[in-house]
């Protein structure tokens, strides 16, 4: 429904190639705070502070610093909706590399964009309203970007593990128990068109206050609390705390396209438990498993490949790529050191008439 124009400058966010302020490293307290927010993204600062053994003001102040510096962010996004997710690989001419990257980053439906090594320069994860909408995106939009040479799209068939489940694992079981609140409403609450202002606000700031949400949505604070509570308890709206991977000590991204043959499910479940895994999903196309990881160094690529083929005699690594530069994650535009420098609201691709922001 809502689609940005290819030029991300018009989205109200920074251009995806603007440099950020430089590299940084998280302290031990930073990682425990971020781990707590991954488990309880909208938990009260009193609850988070108690779990970490600090006062609420200390936790709140440090989060605000990390958020303001683009080192961490919280995003809300709908789940359980009947959307088609796909992984798109693009090859373009050398002079078109930045133009194509800017176009991809400006799309609301592209929630992840990376520039990679190898023949194809870009990897993107997209969400569309269905297979026909994906075809429209690929053949009626992306193929018309000047300089695009080839496009390959594979559907996501099943997700074994996704990036929102990755954690630095700095909290003990007692701390995690204090922060965990399982969904309590088994009945799905479908999203409505009237939820759009709420989703847009929470996509930009997942910890946006109820008062500010009420102001943006033009309803009472009580109405916002009730609606948000229903959506989250029923599992229709998820919150995700992300962080700068370089500062977390995992500076390298690697993408493996794997054919696991008849052992797909067994291999997928096994890989999903690895601490490096950001995404493990079965796909259509010439391979049936996509494995995406955060790594400590380039040398880890060989180790990961050895672990993959050791899982089954049926496993064959079809291709492996290293990300030269991550440009976008969950709607956040990333600077060269991985810090968020802008935001493009998330939405699915529905037709060939993108909406200007």
Automatic annotation (TrEMBL):
Q: Where is the HTH asnC-type domain?
A: 195-251
Q: Which Pfam families match?
A: AsnC_trans_reg (PF01037), HTH_AsnC-type (PF13404)
Coiled-coil region(s): none
Region entry Disordered: which residue ranges?
1-20
Q: Which domain of life is it from?
A: Bacteria
Q: Which UniProt keywords apply?
A: DNA-binding, Transcription, Transcription regulation
Q: Does the keyword Transcription regulation apply?
A: yes
InterPro entries per the record?
ArsR-like_HTH, AsnC-type_HTH_dom, Dimeric_a/b-barrel, Tscrpt_reg_AsnC-like, Tscrpt_reg_AsnC/Lrp_C, WH-like_DNA-bd_sf, WH_DNA-bd_sf
Q: What is this protein called?
A: Lrp/AsnC family transcriptional regulator
Lineage, uppermost ranks: Bacteria, Bacillati, Actinomycetota, Actinomycetes, Mycobacteriales
């Amino acid at each position: 429904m809502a689609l940005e124009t290819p030029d991300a400058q018009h989205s109200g966010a920074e251009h995806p190639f603007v440099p950020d302020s430089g590299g940084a490293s998280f302290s031990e307290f930073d990682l425990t705070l971020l781990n707590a927010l991954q488990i309880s993204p909208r938990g009260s600062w009193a609850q988070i502070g108690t779990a970490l053994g600090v006062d609420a003001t200390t936790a709140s102040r440090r989060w605000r610093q990390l958020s303001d510096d683009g080192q961490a962010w919280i995003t809300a996004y709908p789940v359980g909706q009947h959307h088609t997710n796909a992984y798109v690989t693009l090859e373009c001419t050398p002079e078109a590399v930045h133009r194509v990257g800017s176009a991809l980053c400006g799309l609301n439906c592209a929630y992840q964009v990376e520039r990679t090594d190898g023949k194809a320069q870009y990897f993107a994860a997209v969400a569309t309203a269905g297979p026909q909408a994906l075809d429209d995106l690929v053949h009626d939009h992306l193929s018309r970007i000047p300089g695009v040479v080839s496009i390959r799209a594979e559907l996501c068939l099943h997700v074994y593990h996704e990036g929102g489940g990755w954690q630095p694992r700095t909290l003990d079981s007692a701390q995690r128990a204090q922060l965990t609140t399982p969904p309590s409403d088994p009945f799905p609450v479908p999203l409505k068109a009237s939820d759009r202002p709420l989703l847009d606000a929470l996509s930009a700031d997942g910890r946006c206050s109820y008062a500010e949400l009420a102001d943006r949505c033009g309803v009472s604070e009580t109405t916002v609390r009730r609606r948000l509570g229903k959506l989250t308890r029923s599992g229709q709206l998820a919150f995700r705390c992300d962080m700068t991977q370089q500062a977390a000590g995992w500076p390298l991204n690697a993408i493996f396209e794997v054919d696991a043959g008849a052992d797909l499910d067994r291999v997928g479940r096994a890989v999903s438990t690895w601490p490096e895994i950001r995404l493990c999903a079965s796909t259509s196309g010439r391979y049936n498993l996509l494995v995406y990881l955060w790594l400590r160094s380039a040398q880890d690529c060989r180790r990961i490949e050895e672990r993959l083929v050791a899982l089954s005699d049926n496993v064959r690594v079809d291709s492996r790529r290293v990300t030269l530069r991550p440009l976008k994650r969950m709607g956040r535009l990333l600077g060269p050191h991985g810090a968020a420098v802008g935001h493009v609201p998330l939405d699915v691709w529905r037709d060939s008439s993108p909406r200007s922001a």
